[in-house]
Design goal:
The chain has 174 residues and is mainly β. The protein is built from no helices and 12 strands. The chain has strands at residues 11-16, 26-29, 52-60, 69-74, 80-86, 89-95, 109-114, 118-121, 126-127, 131-133, 137-145, 152-162. The chain is globular, with a radius of gyration of 17 Å.
């Protein structure tokens, strides 16, 4: 085809279990272990001047195997918290920004998360939208809103989200 730019091979991200590697991008939200205990996560909902709290429930269709991810989002002014309401397991994909602020998918991290943990994305962190596995799911979502650029979306080179650590096997699940 004349005049077209050859596309690069998709970036393959391998899933890992939830870990402290999320720290530069946010935190996994875990319930307390002991009955009657409370796990405080207030820092993720600190007020943001000029914005109002927003709380909604969503319905997310399950991801299809080998569907490339080609868009990420960020919320420049507010953290965004997802608490599973009815989710078997889901994927969290985060990535750093280049010096110009654009997403850097080459250094993205992918986590396979059980439906018993939530995720808090720090303000301004590039991430993939809610990606549930196995069946449809629902999350409670909390953040601050009111600015024109509450949600910033941009396209990225294709990324394949892999749950299989041996990508050469034909039985890869994603």
């Amino acid at each position: 085809m004349t005049g077209t730019t050859p596309s690069k091979a998709p970036i393959t991200l391998r899933a890992q279990p939830p870990s402290a590697a999320i720290t530069p991008y946010g935190a996994f939200i875990a319930p307390p272990d002991a009955p009657g205990a409370r796990a405080r996560h207030d820092r993720w909902l600190a007020p943001v001047a000029g914005l109002a709290p927003s709380f909604h429930l969503n319905h997310v269709a399950p991801a299809k195997a080998n569907t490339p991810i080609e868009q990420v989002e960020r919320h420049p002014h507010s953290a965004q918290v997802f608490l599973p309401v009815d989710v078997a397991r889901y994927l969290v994909t985060v990535m750093p920004a280049h010096p110009d602020g654009s997403p850097c998918p080459e250094n993205a991290l992918l986590f396979e998360v059980p439906g018993t943990l939530g995720i808090a994305y720090a303000p301004g962190v590039w991430h993939v939208g809610a990606t549930v596995l196995d069946r449809a799911g629902h999350f409670a979502v909390l953040m601050w809103r009111g600015a024109q650029d509450d949600d910033v979306f941009t396209e990225i080179p294709a990324c394949i989200l892999s749950l299989d650590t041996e990508l050469d096997r034909p039985s890869a699940r994603v």
